[in-house]
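Annotated sample (chain length 544).
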Amino acid sequence: MVELEFQQKTKELIDSLKSICANYGLGNDGNEFKIITQVFLYKFLNDKFAFEAKKLDKKVAKAEKWEQVLSTMSDDDLEMLQLQMGADTARLKPEHFIAHLFSQQNKPDFAKLFDDTLRDIAISNNDVFAVKTDGGAKVVLFDRLSEYIADESKRDDFCRAIINKLVEFSFERIFTQKFDFYATIFEYLIKDYNSNSGGKYAEYYTPHAVARIMAAILVPKEQQGKIKNVSCYDPSAGSGTLLMNVAHAIGENRCSIYTQDISQKSSNLLRLNLILNNLVHSIPNVIQGNTMLHPYHKDGKALKHFDFIVSNPPFKMDFSDFRDDLDSKENKDRFFAGIPKIKAKATDKMEIYQLFLQHIIFSLKPGGKAAVVVPTGFITAQSGIDKKIRQKLVDNKMLAGVVSMPSNIFATTGTNVSILFIDASNQGDVVLVNASNLGQKVKDGKNQKTVLSMEEEKHIIDVFNAKQAEDDFSVVISYDEIANKNYSLSAGQYFEVKIEYIEITPEEFAEKMKGFTHNLDSLFSQSHKLEKEIEKQLVGLKYA
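Output written by the structure step:
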């Protein structure tokens, strides 16, 4: 109950920050996203510092105003205190605290002080908290937020409104919360910017049902808490929904996360998600850049290989401007099945997911596992790059199976999707699940989406992990059987056609045959009458 109450208060803080932005003309403005997420992050880091300081110093813990105790500490004592804090706690000075800004808010040029404070925090914490680009530049924690207000005369008031809202609230009680709490808060924080109903940043959204199914199959319950020191990678990370679920299943302190995404917005969202989920140690591995053209993560000169890979890559996109750059000698092994051709009249429909899928297979460690969202057409295509990729997975015995999802599981696309599970250690049978008939259709804004119940999610996971065959739902087949079916990965093509046998007496058989004969005679009679009628009409037309 206390957790739900605090979750509600956190959501109210987010709503009030959005209200301030709206009052200063930034409602639904592209920059509102930056302000909301960065102010929220500033508050989170401020309170995390307080939480850690109170654990380490009794005087700070007992003080009515912890900021005052820290302000009176010598530089050496403060530095010693910070050294004892974990690397996931930002290094702050007393002048960085929200309470300090609150006390200074009536001074002239408050907006400048506000911006300078945030920028100084960013610079002081650049080594741990900055996201890198594939060109080596650093995307720091905070922008000069007041500058998004066009009217300079309103900037001081805007920053005062923000500080007055932040000082009323404390995050300290949430630092003992678990993954589900943070997942809910993160989703609420970015819901207007990262919507699954066609919002501004819908490209970063993966439904939680898909993320949970992927994580639970990649890391079954019996393996949770036993895996350690592993690497998890997403080459099209978005806001990190898939990675957060996998990291949670493994254990946040048992894995390191590596990502790349071409969008700066998504990299900022991902950084925030990592901070909320106690994965700060992985922020230096977050790269903003073009994964296909400039894959960043390497061991020496060779591309890095990973234990776990998850991805919901873009399906179709125009990459004609760099397509020929990919067709090089050094990429021959990475893009083993080929590079999609430039489409003469529809460059925006180039199958970029085929590149991501080949990159993922190439980036997997021996014995590694991957889960990738693909268009369902991929699993049955009988020629081209799709079939060559499936053939490699089957011939090299590195396939765990496929789950074909219901239509509209993604509200933003009409494309049917399947989850492809790759397992470089699976020498046994493969599981194909047809979950396309599950779920309930609901309205989501202007779109319709299909929502799976928790029981349906569990059923998919249990059947897959147990390698269980179930009538009209799942099959368990060998690699040879797949090869014999032209490498099709559609469960429906392997379902048994069942013929029902009923025992009847000779008399009952004769009666049924009599009925069939009567029906046939009746049909022939009707056909004959219709023929005569058509002949009459044709004769009438001839002499008309």
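Annotation: The first strand starts at residue 131 and ends at 133.
Annotation: The chain has three domains: 2-175, 188-494, 504-544.
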